[in-house]
Amino acid sequence: MVGQSATTQTSYNSDAYVAERAFTQLLELIGPDPELLRLQEFNPSLSLIRDYISRALRAGLPSPEVTADVATILMTVDGAIRADLSQRIRLHSKQFGGLTRVVRAIDDNPDAPLAQVLTRELCTALGYGKAMYSLVSGSSWAPVWISVNPELRGGFDPLVAAVNGSAIPLHDAPREAELVRRRRPYAVGPSEVRRHTYRPLLDLSRPAGYIAAPIVVAERAIAIVHVDRHDNDLTEADFHLITTLAQACALATESARLRAAIAEQNRRTTAELDRLNRALRELEHGGLTLDDLGEHCPEPEIDAEIGSRTAHYPPALTARERDVLALVATGATNAAISRRLCISDGTVKSHVQRIFKKIGVSTRAEAAAMYAGRAPAAEPPA
Questions:
Q1: What is the CA radius of gyration of the chain?
Q2: What are the residues facing 133 on neighbouring strands?
Q3: DSSP state of 379
Q4: Is the four-CA dihedral 65, 69, 72, 78 of positive or negative sign?
Q5: Which of 14, 147, 218, 340 is most buried, taking the most CB atoms under 10 A from its CB?
Q6: What is the mean pLDDT of residues 236-257?
Q7: Is 357 helix (H, G, I), strand (E, B) or coil?
Q8: Is pLDDT larger for residue 277 or for residue 12?
Q9: May I ask the CATH architecture of the domain 295-371?
Q10: In the sheet where 210-217 sits, what is the strand order?
Q11: pLDDT digits over 253-267, tens only?
Q12: Domain 109-259's class?
């Protein structure tokens, strides 16, 4: 047809147009057959038209001429069905290859922002019109990144500028709120695209339909992926594809968190080892003995009751000897004093001997009695 637009030409080659044209031709050739008229109730597809023609040819038609014309219609319908199948095979092959490429891109770039890698590959490897990545936190969601297919010519700069990480209350976006609550993906067709959605972004994007899928980690939706083909509706294959990618993103996110936790643990372990190495080098170069290390331990807190008796200490005792005497007076053994004061058993023994010599006693009981301000108890007979 002269002057026919490219859009009209494309529609003439669509499955719906071929089915509608075949139905009209059958009405002209066969007449208002009740079975044929019933097809109108189902908005007949190519497969329904083909089934009807096959039955009509088997049952027989009024004349050879009509039979030949109906057979010609059948060949046209068969050709359209074969073309549709070929297109679907090509599309699914491309989608499978694109899916592999997207997953590989995510795995190969563990340190790159997932939002950028995913949305870019969705618009290039898989050919979607627009792809948006949003983070979910509490009762809000925040679109943080969007990519637009380079082949789109629609002036989407305002949309890109609007996706700036600002938080949006989920109650302003009922579809996203339901997705977060139920942790399930959804698809929106052309007839419902403007219902229950966040209109400011939708008005800038203007999609024919879209799919949204949650990225679920530890049974919680942490992010949302939105995709559309802009001028074309999405198929069931798209739905399964985006759902699969969301699951791959969840695994990548869990792996990244695990790597971060391991790295932090390694950092802490390395810092502790460095601290111990420095302490050992200081010990090596300082000429300290293990017994001397006790002198560098934090001074223990002596009980208030014991501390109140410091007046009974002979002035010749050192501070550490006073600590040892206070603990001897409580009945503590050398091992207990060693643990309490962070010194070796040998050092405790040396301190006790010096204390006995300085205060003029020969038993722990006498030392305790002197510490308490009492006369030394008499030694039991041998």
A1: 43
A2: 145, 225
A3: P
A4: negative
A5: 147
A6: 84
A7: helix
A8: 277
A9: Orthogonal Bundle (1.10)
A10: 168-169, 140-148, 130-137, 220-228, 210-217, 186-188
A11: 887 787 788 888 888
A12: alpha beta
The pTM score is 0.50
Q: Which amino acid does the sequence have at 338?
A: S
Calculate the CA 360 to chain-centre distance.
Answer: 74
Q: Are 222 and 201 in contact (CB under 8 A)?
A: no
DSSP letter at 232 equals B
With contact defined as beta carbons under 8 Å apart, do 221 and 183 qualify? yes
pLDDT surpassing 50 at residue 118: yes
- CA 56 – CA 69 distance, rounded (Å): 12
Residue limits of CATH 3.30.450.40 in the chain? 109-259
Q: Helix/strand/coil (H, E, C) string of 48-98?
A: HHHHHHHHHHHHCCCCHHHHHHHHHHHHHHHHHHHHHHHHHHHHHHHHHHH
Q: H or E segment at 220?
A: strand 220-228
> Which residues fall within 8 angstroms of residue 146, CB to CB, at 6 or more apart?
119, 130, 131, 132, 133, 159, 160, 163
Region(s) of the chain under CATH 1.10.10.10: 295-371
**Which of 225, 224, 223 is CA-nearest to residue 257?**
223
